[in-house]
Amino acid sequence: MSTPARVVVLDYGFGNVRSAVRALERVGAQVELTASKKAAVEADGLVVPGVGAFAAVMAGLRGVDGDQVIDRRLAGGRPVLGICVGMQVMFAEGVEHGERAEGLGEWPGVVDRLEAPVVPHMGWATVDAPAGTALFDGIGDERFYFVHSYAARTFPLSDDIPSDSPINRPLVTWSDHGGPFVAAVENGPLAATQFHPEKSGDAGAQLLTNWVTSLR
């Protein structure tokens, strides 16, 4: 019998992340909620959760050297999964209430307020997953649970890489609320979702299963 994948959910003092821990345990991962740099660097997979404001999440991450941990893991090709604001901070910057905050800069682009009649976007929505997706294998037609007022509404990196480039273009999944926005990204060892897979029922559980399975 194979050893369960070891997953660290990064604890940087923000929000209730127990639901993410439980969801990962249910799909067979061995999960630790910790701020330990050593554990976060050495785990098979690192999950970066996020709720609240972009700037506050960035401050929390820097407070436990999460930015360094994420950089180190990605430089070594070790998987990272960002969820909700944990996805947003992977972009270069976020704009909230007219204030700009620097993100982790793993991807170019800006996270800003959705332009829709009703904000926040709260509830179940479909996604448009690309061909070749691993995260959405078998669940591309399902609905996922979103709670957010901000999102990346463009993904410049896809446009920056020519179609004939030897570099793999990121796989970007889109959804729509007053206009298209980035719902998920798969980019080598870095994957992220704007929605909450841990709150997305069977579809979310299958997405987490797909990710955890890829760690071994």
Description:
This is Imidazole glycerol phosphate synthase subunit HisH. Heterodimer of HisH and HisF. Residues 8-211 form the Glutamine amidotransferase domain. It is found in: Cytoplasm. 27% of the residues lie in helices and 31% in strands. With 216 residues, the protein is of the alpha/beta class. The longest helix is centred in the last third of the chain and has 14 residues, at 201-214. The two termini are 13 Å apart. The model has no long low-confidence stretch (mean pLDDT 95).
Descriptive tags:
alpha/beta; seven-stranded mixed beta sheet; globular
- The beta-strand count equals 13
Kindly estimate the percentage of residues that lie in beta strands according to DSSP.
Answer: 25-35%
Which strand order spans the largest sheet, edge to edge or round the barrel?
2-1-3-4-13-12-11
> SSE string, helix = H, strand = E?
EHEHEHHEHEEEEEEHEEEH
Which percent bin holds the helix content? Answer: 25-40%
Quaternary status of these chains? single chain
Gyration radius, to the nearest Å? 16 Å
Structural class designation: alpha/beta
Average the pLDDT over all residues and give the rounded result: 95
Largest sheet report: 7 strands, mixed
General shape: globular
Which residue ranges are poorly predicted, with pLDDT under 50 across at least 5 consecutive positions?
none
Report how far the terminal alpha carbons are from each other: 13 Å
Number of helices: 7
